[in-house]
Specification:
Structural class: alpha+beta
Distance between the termini: 84 Å
Shape: rod-shaped
Order of helices and strands: HEEEEEEEEEEEHH
CATH class of the largest domain: Mainly Beta
Helix content: 25-40%
Largest sheet: 6 strands, antiparallel
Strand content: 15-25%
Length: about 300
């Protein structure tokens, strides 16, 4: 009996883990993003949403900010769009100081990538493109980033670009002319983010594998159904386990009651056998004679 209960518990626990993994991987319950807040990312905001998402889409936000720079150094600085879908991060001295320039203004503008350039070969866009620009003030000239080798393991003085993607992006690109150049990047899958380091500003986009015969599925309906089925299975398994345990308990109590009813009652002492009437009469007569006999005849 204990083995059966243990097996049922293990099965329910395994099912829970499987459903949780499917939920997290499918984006139903994503974990904490790298740079945004403490909750799951909100629905993606499209410049031009897929047809099935147009009714619920919210327009994406832009971002802008200004930071002062000194005559010899520039401080660390970062700006984000208000919806958190795009960010740029500069380390200390990540912006080249130019004589006579007192500050730097940065802007992030969401774009429809399909109107910018064709997607990279065998890939589909997975979200908006973002134009990230910076200018010196008061001159208005484009800012400069130190010309150093950028890598994921050593950022040096490079700027870090962070984009949220919609579904399953695998690469980050920067536009050069009318073609896309890949930026070495890394994903934070649970946060639906991709990031990479660059020494050149411009227009950036996230892209993922192309699905032959059509666009990537945009709906999460299948994942939601899988999650719901798993949850129902967990609740049903728990209910059945409790019902079986209750039936076994009642069966044990009924068995104990039957055993108690079959036990023999304590033995009673047999009644004393009475003497026949004649013998009783003779005994009474002898007792009477003994009582009436004078004491001197003993």
């Amino acid at each position: 009996m204990k083995v059966r209960r243990l097996s049922a518990g293990v099965a329910i626990a395994v099912l829970y883990v499987v459903v949780a993994q499917l939920s997290f991987r499918s984006g139903l319950a994503p974990t904490r993003p790298l740079y945004d807040g403490t909750g799951p990312p909100p629905p993606y905001r499209w410049v031009t949403p897929p047809a099935e998402l147009a009714a619920t889409n919210t327009k994406p936000s832009s971002g802008s900010g200004t930071t002062p720079i000194g005559p010899k150094s520039a401080p660390a600085y970062n700006i984000n769009t208000d919806d958190g879908q795009a960010s740029i991060i500069f380390p200390p001295d990540g912006i080249v100081v130019v004589s006579g320039q007192k500050s730097v203004k940065l802007t992030i503008t969401p774009l429809d990538p399909a109107k910018v350039a064709p997607p990279p070969p065998n890939l589909d866009y997975d979200g908006n493109a973002y134009e990230i620009m910076g200018i010196y003030q008061p001159s208005g000239n484009p800012i400069q980033i130190p010309n150093v080798a950028c890598s994921l393991t050593q950022a040096n003085a490079c700027a870090t670009i962070v984009l949220r993607y919609a579904f399953n992006a695998t690469k980050l690109y920067r536009l050069e002319g009318q073609t896309w150049t890949e930026v070495p990047s890394q994903r934070a899958g649970s946060a639906l983010q991709i990031y990479g380091n660059t020494n050149t500003l411009g227009t950036f986009v996230a892209a993922g594998p192309h699905v032959a015969g059509g666009k990537k599925p945009k709906s999460q309906t299948g994942n939601i159904i899988a999650f719901a089925v798993g949850l129902v299975a967990i609740l049903l398994g728990t209910f059945l386990a409790r019902v079986r345990a209750s039936r076994r308990r009642r069966a044990r109590e009924a068995g104990k009651g039957k055993k108690a009813s079959k036990q023999p009652s304590p033995k009673q002492a047999p009644p004393k056998q009475q003497k026949p009437p004649r013998e009783r009469k003779a005994a009474r007569q002898r007792r009477k004679e003994q009582e009436e006999k004078p004491w001197w005849r003993d």
